[in-house]
Amino acid sequence: MRGTFVRGSIEYCLITSAEEWRQGEKLKAEILIKNLTMDRATVKGLRTVLALGSLRKIQKKNKEAWTVKDIIKFDSEVVLAAQEQRKYPVEFQLPVDMPISDTDHSAYLIYGDDEDLYKCGFLRLNIDVRASIVGFIEVLVLFFRFQVKQKKNSSKNFVEFKLIPPKTKEFNTLDNLFVKVKE
To answer: Half-sphere exposure of residue 85, counting CA atoms within 13 Å on the CB side?
Structure first.
């Protein structure tokens, strides 16, 4: 994935190595800063932030929308010559209990040089459940023919799956199966 924004005479570009990550994986990316003018430019406080964001609060630009998980700070002051660009590697270890991306919340990479996170660029990340949890749900789907209707975050870092049973006489009294899992 790629995110780009321009602030003043500086272009910030964040490039990730993948489109989707699982809980507990390493997230690798790089941030590229480029001076767009023919003059010298200075960037102070360049950083990348891994944060959880509430989608409704982000749309309203509420200051409480973000929960910062980790921060990588780069050189305190970067001086770029005319048309110069620099790359910085970014690597975060996602927590095992990182909430998955759903319709209410998601993880974000926020990049730029401002303390106000809304004045920086942000890239929404697609986080999915750990492979071991996927294996358990696949048993229900493949062998018992359940269908996953919904997947969402639940309280205390649980992931809740809503499964619909097959139309067979073994499961005709069952409307839904709710599975809450946590590793």
So the answer is: 11
Closest listed residue to residue 113, CA positions, set 2, 18, 31: 31
- HSE-up of 50 (CA within 13 Å, CB side)? 20
The Cα–Cα gap between 77 and 60 comes to 32
Which element (helix H / strand E) includes 59?
A: helix 55-59
DSSP label at 140? H
The DSSP letter of residue 118 is G
Task: Mark 148-176 as b/e (b = at least 16 C-beta within 10 Å).
Answer: eeebebeeeeebebebbbeeeeeeeeeee
Provide the residue type at 94 as one letter.
Answer: L
Per DSSP, the three-state class of 22 is strand
pLDDT one-digit tens code per residue, 107-155: 999 999 988 889 999 999 999 999 899 999 999 999 999 999 999 998 8
Q: Give the residue from 103, 106, 182 showing the smallest Cα distance to 150.
A: 103
* Type and span of the H or E element at 85: strand 85-93
Task: Report yes or no: 135 and 124 within 8 Å, Cβ to Cβ.
Answer: no
Task: Evaluate if pTM is beyond 0.85.
Answer: yes
